[in-house]
Amino acid sequence: MNILVDAHVFDGKHQGTRVYLKGLYQSLIPICKDWNFFIAATDIDNLKEEFGEFDNIHFVQLKNKSKFYRLIIDFPSLIRKYNIDYSHFQYTIPPFKKGKYIVTLHDILFEQKEFKSFFPSKGRFINHFLHKISAKKADILFTVSEFSKNKISDLYKINSSKIHVSPNAVNKEFYNNKNESSTQTPPKYILYVSRIEPRKNHLTLLRAFNELKLDDKGYKLIFIGKPDIANPEFESYIKSNNERITKFLIFLEDLATNDLIKYYSNCDLFVFPSYAEGFGIPPLEAMVLEKKVLCSDHTAMKDFNLPEEFRFDPYNLKELKTKIIAQLSNKFDIKEIYKPILAKYHWQEIAKEFKQVIDFQNKGLT
Fold it and tell me: What distance in Å separates the CA atoms of residue 29 and residue 31, rounded to the nearest whole number?
């Protein structure tokens, strides 16, 4: 069987779809020795570094970074050239059907009334049509959480039995961590890893830290991630409290994986205050490294089933402040708490289930 994978996300900014594709295919390729994988992007050298080289993996160079050129010209051409059986796309498929399509639709948060304000109107309008058409035309439709599955079924009127959950997990670098980094981190700090945009709710965490005056106790607050969507309220708060905030707030981006792992490993507390996620990988990364975690309990993050002490309402500043103080002072048997959660989100098992869905499709059983 020949599988074509749209990996153009590896040509751009770091995001959850990159973690998903890398983790899934790094585990899938070794167990599917009779499948040929064609991984496509413009930067072939980067793909080789990310995925490694195997006998059954082929790196294919896309001719153009343009989304429309890629979907209209590049992929149909590659499907014909390599006699592709299944093409795997994230969110959006080519407009003209060539062969069978696997689609992973990670979330449709922009379709939900309560979250529309977090997304630019132009993107919402375009993605409404592209994502809905892709979901309905997919031969096999995946998403990454039960939350997203229910929303896709409800808002796009697709029978839930036709939607398969293939969740995210933590990539092997975090499990094989040897902390080989010369980066120096502050002695005490709270960490948040995410793109910077209104939906990610950096402001509530910043306000909590500032109002608790944790810098007086020697703590820094570190945000790792690139600015993505303009966040005027967040920027205004920093400007209004600039003299104080600049003493403790640190922004970082474009870290090498080993450096990122070191920042996770040395933090005193990892906080994930996002309002809405289709999944939410960073809390799991912190759990693998056995760090204290405070995670928003809204949308897909409910699936983690964290104990009450480890979750909070992202709209409730008072609750967050109370739980930050509790987490910093309390001692928990973190390994035992995280064990059942991490067992559920493990790439080897996810890859096996992904393979089973495709095998069943080929046998006409789905």
Answer: 6
